[in-house]
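To assess whether ligand presence alters the predicted conformation, the chain was also submitted together with coenzyme A. Input:
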Amino acid sequence: MLIRRETPADIPAIRAVTAAAFRGAAHSAPPVEPGGDPGEATLVGWLRDDPGWIPELSLVATDAGAVVGHVVCTRGMLGETPALGLGPLSVSPERQGAGIGSALMHAVLGAADALSEPVVVLVGEPAFYGRFGFVPADGLGITAPDPQWGAYFQARPLTAHRPDLRGTFRYAAPFDRL
Ligand SMILES: CC(C)(COP(=O)(O)OP(=O)(O)OC[C@H]1O[C@@H](n2cnc3c(N)ncnc32)[C@H](O)[C@@H]1OP(=O)(O)O)[C@@H](O)C(=O)NCCC(=O)NCCS
């Protein structure tokens, strides 16, 4: 398995992997396009066309040349400070449980740290994301856009993080369209 930045040729495969991963997920976004793919598959395309897209932080996992996983971080705002929102993260259903999601997480967090980003936030299972250094965001003074997310809204401070970096997080605009 290799992890690298996405290229234009990967775009259809990323959509297919995202759709397949979230079709089997316990809670996925409702479809927003004819065809019925989960909303997350559409969201990745919307994000790619948004000013919040960061090409360095859209990574694919490939095996024998085929895309088997994808992760992306996009530009959000923490108060007046730029920060990152992570997701969607997707692994092909038949390849889940073999370390691909973890490899993508480590790779994208390393890339974000190398870009001197201060913090990455996400909504997800604390049992999965805690192993990558995510903690409940409110403990860092980072408030979710939706208070109902509770402990599922998590943050991973990076090297450039400062304790005074607090406030309410806003995802890139396409997230509001789901
Ligand atoms: C979540 C996902 C990306 C993980 O990828 P993966 O390649 O299966 O992950 P890994 O093999 O690296 O890690 C598997 C571990 O994660 C745990 N895990 C996976 N999904 C989990 C979840 N929703 N809640 C808690 N733990 C979870 C597994 O139990 C396993 O734990 P273990 O290592 O202690 O046995 C993948 O299952 C997926 O694409 N799911 C559907 C889409 C989704 O829910 N994405 C995340 C929300 S944006």
